[in-house]
Amino acid sequence: MSNKYIGMDVHQASTVIVVLNEAGKTIMETILETKTGTLLDFIQGLRGRLQVTFEEGTYAAWLYDVLTPYVERVVVCDPRKNKLLPSGHKSDKVDARKLAEWLRQGQLVAVYHGNRTLRGLKELVRSYLCLVQDVTRVMNRLKALYRGRGISCGGRAVYRLRQRDSWLALLSEPGVQQRAALLYQQLDVLQALRQTARQALLTESRKQAAFPILRQIPGLGPIRAGVVLALVQTPHRFRTKRQFWAYLGLAVVTSSSAEYRIVQGRVQKSGKPVSTRGLNPNYNRALKDVFKAAATGVSQREGPFKTLYARWLDRGLAPELARLSLARKLAALTLTLWKKGARYHPEQVTQQAA
Prior knowledge:
Blueprint: E1 3-10, E2 14-20, E3 26-33, H1 36-44, E4 49-55, H2 60-67, E5 73-77, H3 92-105, H4 119-147, H5 164-169, H6 174-205, H7 211-215, H8 222-232, H9 241-248, E6 252-255, E7 260-263, E8 266-269, E9 275-279, H10 285-298, H11 304-314, H12 319-340, H13 348-351
Parallel strand pairs: 1-4, 4-5
Antiparallel strand pairs: 1-2, 2-3, 6-9, 7-8
Helix pairs in contact: 4-6, 4-8, 6-8, 8-10, 9-12, 10-12, 11-12
């Protein structure tokens, strides 16, 4: 049975499809409506071992679930790591063919889509995080409104319900006062929705078998544990802690050039120092925030992490680098315990190098 490699360039109204055979020859090109029935009729009309690829985007999760039962392999590829045709002519058919060709050559980097069992928890986490951002945005707008008129508003007193009338009285312009009142109403609604989303997230998280394992890790409260569970889904996605660090945005990026030289006809390392370029730019921002916040928390509470943090500071390590090291250690500990289903013991902090 022959292999067929299918590249899809998916858009809202239409999907351009190119099918290649094992030799890389185009055997079919078509344009279909982006609907479940239309796409499945096309796929089921093909014979052989079918492999499909398309880029991560708005329709990726839906299309992944639709096609997976009917083909041998679905690769949702990362558009950041495979720029389609950086030069030359560009069209939907050209893009679809390029995707199919890269699939045939095994050059695509897949985006993990997990399983459906945690899809509900993932959506709850997204809802909660969006509401947290919305609440923060409205709070910032309120403070900007007061500060823009020379009114000092440090702390959280400006948001308290009992003190709002006195704060509104400080605004002399009727239009500005009405705008502030509307922002307060928006804040009240968003805060209520955030509490509802928070409770739903906690309820769903507690149903998962891995939740107690994540909760025992220092710095991971119930909300942070739920976020990690929903966004990572399984620790077995990552073979090593360094792969996990890269996903969290905690991996150090290095750069080197002219590494080798010829000495008496033999190749030798030049010994030039490797340049550090900071942390990797492609990462999951919500998870990075979780582990950075957890590292900040454990560095201030009594325990082995605070002791380790103080030791690094005594050795001359900058506070921000020490907190980065704590975040990496927490991430490595999380991955290890989650994979093994083991319990946390404080002595593991000194055993697990970050």
